Amino acid sequence: MQEPVTAPPLGDPTPLGLICLSIGCAALLPLAFGVKAALTPDGLRIAATFCLLFGAGGQMLAGLMSFVNKNALGGTLFTAFSFNWVMNWWGLSDAAQGHPPNSTVVLAVDVCFLVIFVAMTFAFGFYSKLLAAFLGDIVVLYLARIARELLGAHELGVVIAFATVLLMAIALYIAFALVLQTASGRAILPLGGPLFTARAPT
Q1: pTM to 2 decimals?
Q2: What angle do CA 61, 79, 165 make, to 5 degrees?
């Protein structure tokens, strides 16, 4: 006999995590596009605050809720990424005081993040094409960051900026799709099927 399927103890925290991520991305966009009014100590400090509250705080909460719901994949992604948003807060706060982060250390961590997100893109591909695209966009963003640092190609900043815009857009779409599905009881915005299909054990 099959055991009865029980509902998770908490609501799905994915929309919360994605909405908070998109707000953090929005705070970084003026900096990424080089808007002079944002590249001031005040602009850096307010961007840092959004990164801390929404990027770090919102995703930490979403990650811990995912773990409670026994969603290890979502919990791992949200929780680990929340610490990166803390680093964004710290880096921007220091930059506002004229002390930018050490680029050599940041490059080493970016390479590690790239490996992590390549693996995560593959893992989420078993759930949804759109989630795979979401993680794939992060891979492109980190590739551009690493190439900019290694090659000194500052023009890649535009690629990073537009990858951030796309990341924010996909995050909001997935969040709205999940919220509308919960509210209406039906899929209003399609999320698409899996990109990969696991082969059944023989």
Answers
A1: 0.88
A2: 90
